[in-house]
Design a protein that fits this description.
Layout: H1 2-33, H2 37-50, H3 54-66, H4 70-83, H5 88-100, H6 104-117, H7 122-134, H8 138-150, H9 156-164, E1 196-197, H10 207-215, E2 216-217, E3 225-235, E4 243-254, E5 260-268, E6 282-283
Parallel strand pairs: 1-5
Antiparallel strand pairs: 2-6, 3-4, 4-5
Helix pairs in contact: 1-2, 1-3, 2-3, 3-4, 3-5, 4-5, 5-6, 5-7, 6-7, 7-8, 8-9
Amino acid sequence: MKSFLIGSLVFFSSVLHAQDAKSLLDDGLKKAQAGQVREALTSFDQSIALKDDYPVRQSRGMAYSLLRRYEDAVTDFTKAISFKPDAKKSMVSRGIARKKLADYRGALSDFSAALKVDSKLAEAYYNRALVYELLGETEKACSDYKAAFAQGMKPAELKVETCTNPLPTPPNRKPLLQLAGTATDAKYGTTKATPIKVGTSPAGEYENLTTYLDLLRDGQNKPVEYKKTGSLPYASSNAPNGKGTIDVVEINYRDTKNVAKKTTLYLTIFDFEAPKAPVGLKSVVPLTGK
């Protein structure tokens, strides 16, 4: 009788924990949908403490991605896939996060794995095509863009058209796969006279700009927080009528002593010159995925 009572208590306790975990997961999803992503993380953390499973790992991974904490996102998506080996959504999400971490081969592997689960998954074709294009594998990229468009992905239409009728490549269009170290000039990127020349990407006009910012790491090896605060005129022969712009971006980060810092960076897409990290910052160390 005593063992039966103990067993019953354990059973009911596990049921209550599962219910509490589900409530916390739902609470986190509501907060995330309302734009309260950091608050959502707290709910997801509490949910995992009670019950670690696929839905909460996938949800927390997406929250980490929204906060550009891509290393943490990869960890959660990997755990989600361990719970659900055919989780095509997690495979695509991990692939996107790996791309942000300059792990391009790992990203390709994830998108390909998702397509093995669902051969009609337009999102996987499109994202794999973007990586192939960055890596200069044009034929594979075009094949995937066509497959994505055939599955109804409208953004792939322009890419398919470009594959059919290639346009001349402007001098400022270069793939930005990783940063060329850290600058030694303290003025690099921190004045409008010395902007960081990120150029445009084969995968999209502003792809290099966001790639550059996502690859930056602070003194604690953490991603920087950034937001655009304005734009300035910039003369360039690569701009229409020679009139381009500089994007002004506010950066928040922590130095090697964990002291909060703030600075302003100036970046332009109208010229390209192997970008470096500004003094006080560095680049992500590319990961190796499978």
